[in-house]
Design brief:
With 297 residues, this protein is α+β, with helices and mostly antiparallel strands. It folds into two domains: 15-105, Phosphorylase Kinase, domain 1 (2-Layer Sandwich), CATH 3.30.200; 108-254, D-amino Acid Aminotransferase, Chain A, domain 1 (2-Layer Sandwich). It has eight helices and 16 strands. A hairpin with a 2-residue loop joins strand 10 and strand 11 (136-137). Helix 1 (54-68) runs parallel beside helix 8 (279-296) and helix 5 (170-176) crosses helix 6 (179-201). The chain is globular. The mean pLDDT is 95.
Length: 297
């Protein structure tokens, strides 16, 4: 089995931030080194076991989309090959090679830009109760995994680690950030989702929904964080798609389903500490991440 990098732990650099999956280090004053580990989270809890090769897969996929979307919006990337572009990072090659990027330090927006093209997850639960998704009215008669008439933009707050993001209305988003900027984020998010889904369709993949993150660099809106990865999106195999049921997926839904089974059996309560994952679960999850990489690229 491939080596699992659970944490970069580069003590020689200043840790700027640590997320569920990434360590971010301050670098050369105006830059950041982002290292994507093999950690995985579900239900906002970080699992004790990592997923082999996951960090490298996420990095390759995100870098592919960042490049593909440059004609739509600029991004934060300075280098996708930090080890060779910055000699001072060479000593850390064993933990950053293939799983890191150097980016501009910018001002992240305090919202997550979510686009939904299909009815799934929390959106399905809300629709079944109220006929809406994040307050947006939808036609009657939709079922599990139905394709929406048009993709919808459903922003959320960006919660601190250990807390849940909160879905908010677009009107609320315009109270949190400048209304004109909010309109631009909405329009760009929908454009990115449509372009991504059109490309993925040629590879036999449906992107059911996703989240984007944005920042400001010298006052200009740019795309940051990760883009259309199995961590930030639902990927479904198009040849097996059928509405009215849960779909097979290339993302971490497989892991969520396994964990939900433990919850249903009373063996876990969706709180830390996470249950220990069997090798079969980590290996199968790794295969699903690699499959979406191989299909897309």
């Amino acid at each position: 089995m491939a080596k699992v990098v659970h944490e970069a732990n580069i003590k020689e650099l200043e840790l700027f931030n640590k997320g569920k999956v990434r360590e971010i280090y301050s670098f050369q004053n105006d830059k950041l080194l982002i290292v994507t580990s093999d950690r995985i989270s579900a239900f906002d809890v970080i699992m004790g076991q990592g997923i082999p090769e996951k960090g490298k897969v996420l990095t390759k996929i995100a870098n592919f989309w960042f490049k593909k979307f440059e004609s739509i919006i600029k991004n934060h990337i300075i280098s996708t090959d930090p080890v060779n572009d910055f000699p001072e990072l060479k000593p850390f090659e064993n933990v950053i090679e293939g799983r890191s990027i150097v980016v501009h330090k910018c001002q992240p927006l305090p919202i997550e830009a979510i686009v939904r093209g299909y009815l799934a997850g929390s959106g399905l639960k809300e629709y079944e109760k109220y006929g809406t998704v994040c307050g947006i009215s939808l036609p009657e008669g939709l079922v599990n995994s139905s394709k929406l008439p048009e993709p919808i933009f459903t922003p959320s707050t960006k919660a601190e680690q250990g807390f849940h993001d909160e879905n908010i209305s677009f009107e609320k988003m315009k109270e949190i950030i400048d209304p004109e900027l909010a309109e631009k984020v909405k329009n760009v998010s929908l454009e990115l989702y449509k372009a991504g889904n059109e490309y993925a369709a040629t590879k036999g993949i449906i992107i059911a929904d996703t989240k984007f993150e944005f920042g400001l660099l010298n006052g200009e809106l740019i795309l940051i964080d990760e883009v259309l990865t199995p961590d930030s999106s639902r990927f479904w195999p198009a040849d097996e798609y059928a509405e009215g049921k849960n779909q097979k997926s290339f993302d971490k839904q497989y892991l969520r389903d396994y964990l939900q089974g433990l919850v249903d059996e009373g063996k876990w309560n969706k709180s830390a500490p996470a249950p220990e994952l069997p090798d079969e679960v980590t290996e199968t999850t790794s295969k699903k991440y690699n499959e979406v990489l191989n299909r897309l690229l």
